[in-house]
Amino acid sequence: MDEPPANRPLYQISATCVCLFISLLTIIAGCDRTPFDLNLKANDPLGNTSTEAQKTTRVALVMKTLTNPFFLEMERGARRAEREFAVDLIVKMAASETSIQQQIGIVEDLIRDQVDALVIAPGDSVELIPVLRKAQLAGIVVVNIDNQLDPFFSKKNGLAAVPFISVDNKAAAYRSAKYIADKIQFPAQAAIMGGIPEALNSDDRIEGALKAFRENPKISLLTVDSGHWKIEEGHDLMEQWLLRYPQLDLIFAANDMMALGAIEALREAGREDVLVSSFDALIPARQAIEQGTLQASVDQNPAVQGYLGVQYALRALNGEVLPEITYVDAELITASAGAAIKPLKSPGGDS
Length: 351
Ligand code: ALL
Description:
Helix content is about 40%, strand content about 15%. The chain has about 350 residues and is an alpha/beta fold. Strands 2-1-3-4-5-11 form a 6-stranded parallel sheet, sandwiched between helices. Strands 7-6-8-9 form a 4-stranded parallel sheet, with helices on both faces. It has a two-stranded antiparallel ribbon with strand order 10-12.
């Protein structure tokens, strides 16, 4: 079971924060109406002239949680692949960002269910490795998307040849943090809000943001802390930071949900002067960019990641050796670059 945010039971989460979350859910409900133009070719990744052989192929997409609209987009891309390649797609997710044991349980169930392939966005880069190894031993193809499984522990546990599809998190976070760092001309104080510490993409984003902040000698870094990817924790952490570091001038948050919580706390404290940049370019984040409460975010094309995950699973089932790492395009979204909702792009090249 997940614990409530540190030092604060769930029932004490501020009413404002809850309202913010409800309005986010309203926006999530409207997500299906956003433009969707992956512009992908309906290739048959198995190379068959007939789709007969694939009809019974069962691919499972395992994501973290639907409390973050990022994963709705990922599912949308995977559903498109399901239609194009005529496979059965089983979509599973855990209750929250930190429900790692539940995600492991989902994989256990899918092994028992004898799916053909598993496409996973793991909540934790280490904890999922043993159960995924078990899946491989049961003859199930494993494809890793979004958050990378730790290469060292994968090797140690015998998890082999798992293709990874994502953005270059370090480089993209650098661009997001650099956008606000470049605005600093006088001495200023910065903070970084990371996601779950056991997630490699959070580590990479922190590293990218650190690099950007360090490159400006006017910026001093006050703290790096975790908001566990969650809107309410982003809100509460920001409240604590404002008490501890009243001089705070700029913040990089490793995802939009935490940034939106932090922005709400800044608004409540009358501190809209603090510069914030983040990652994901969700619809409410794009709206915040248009309103000027968020300066930048990164569109990491989750639908393309979901689509490619299913496509790679089919190609691997066909015996194809796939690239170890495939980066999809990441786009910096700012007010000047036009934060408006744009159609999704086609997949980036293999690396
Ligand atoms: C990561 C994604 C996101 C997202 C987060 C929350 O793996 O890349 O940026 O917001 O998961 O679970």
